[in-house]
Amino acid sequence: MSERENKQELRGKLIRAKDIEEVRAILGPETAEEEILQTWREIEAHRPADGLEEVDDDELDAVSGGADRDWENDGCSATVEEGSRCWSDDKCTWLEVTYSNFDPCPKGGKHDWRKRGTGIEIHLMGTKSFRHYRCHKCNKEKKEYI
What we know:
This protein is an alpha+beta fold. It has helices at residues 3-15, 20-27, 33-46, 57-63, 71-74, 86-89; strands at residues 69-70, 99-100, 113-123, 126-135, 141-145.
């Protein structure tokens, strides 16, 4: 079993834990009490509201593997200040989050996109309109087709 599969299996067990004692049993006796408490707080914070339909393991496996969160639009799921290192500062090692659209600005945090104008590209199959953006912090450029 790969390390990723092991993490997914551990994550699945932790998410289904009913109380802190179950979390303690899953993590094992060598785990520090502070880490167990932090993991339990993370689990409680990510639990769905009552009344939602439970998903069985086969359905969960069928949809797992994709991104959990759009980093560019939603930011970090952690509760840490910008610039900190999630893996060491926020104890996220037990509840790993997979991001799509992960392109942090090299100057720190998210890009600060500013609209520079619009344009049209001519192709064999027609034209494409776009908006042109530049990051105010690092000068990276991107096009958004409209």
